[in-house]
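Anyone opening a protein record will find just a pair of labelled lines. A complete record is shown below as an example.
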Amino acid sequence: MQTEREEEEGDVSPEEFVGLSDFTGSGSDQLSFSSGDRLLVHAKTSCEWWWAELHGVFGYVPAGYLHRGADGDDISAEDPWQDEEYFGSYGTLRLHLEMLSDKSRTETYRQVILNNSSCLRGKVLMDLGCGTGIISLFCARLAQPSAVYAVEASSMAEYTRQLVKQNGCEAVVTVLQGRAEELELPEQFEFMVESVLLARDRWLRKGGVMWPSSAALTLVPCQAHSYYTEKMAFWERPYGLDFTPLQPLAQQEFFTKPKFSHVIQPDDCLATPCHVISLDMYTLQVEDLEEMKGKFHFHLEKSGTFHGFTAWFAVHFESLETGGETVELNTGPSSEQTHWKQTLFMLDRPVCVHAGDSITGTIVLRRNPIWRRHMTVTLQWSVNSSSTEETDNCQVETKSFPMWR
């Protein structure tokens, strides 16, 4: 029996895919499945969501949770890091213009280097993921290191070499093109900028310093009236017509993934933000990245509409001077805006809340088991009313957000 969707698409041959990990659908039109389940994909409706069948039940499934499961396919043939796509984006000027134009981010790095210039003098430094080499040039000009290795995997590395020469720093800065995991370098390093854990384990000398030294993920329950109106309420009476049948589709399309580059106003925070996950870049291990968990308990400070959660991060640069001040780069709404802005996780339905209520729950970041640059953020929460007669009626809600592409 042919489904309505197949009739719309015409005759199609379903493809078999295997579930990479468990997925619990958060909507009535999403299909739940377990790791190892074999699903038939009937239509690839977008790059993120496909229309699939499992045991005669149809629904949307996140494409990043599936791997082609036909006989003879070799999962090892996939590129787990999707290097061509990832590094290709860094080979263009669009991202570099955005980062270089971010004065808060760039000036923070320059100030950290300037503050610690005496301790960096004569040292060997690494700028991992150097892009156009702006941080390497800061180091060369402000700190007088003995050498700076600027590592960049994208094609931008060739232009970085030109920029190093153009700015008279070629005697100090050496640009190396390639992934950090594959490079062979002549020595270990005492200082690393924008380092990653594998590079730390390979090259950081005992007693060396990493910048950033630590990081924290911050979360807050929030209102998002304008975004909700734009994407959901719009369909109620456009031009005097009832378009509400499109609201479930709008929810599926706009609210199942995070909204990146969101700008939250401080007044839209319903409670005091809190750190939910903190990372020490010296002790964090690669295996810790597979799953990171945090808890939260918010006491609402105002009445309003609970539309979702907003998240941002802060990183810290420890001083090399004894007793020196740690510098923070905070991407939250109370700090100078950065190109990262914030990330909004929308609920399926808004909730009316009151001052004195509390929101408790957990956040889990799970790395995709195949595509290593992707992850899923799962939020579980309950709204506990300050009204005693409603306390026993609170429900635990769960929603997962795929973070890829």
User: Anything to note?
Assistant: The longest strand covers residues 304-317. Residues 83 and 153 are 9 Å apart (CA to CA). The chain has a mean pLDDT of 84. The chain is about 20% helix and 35% strand.
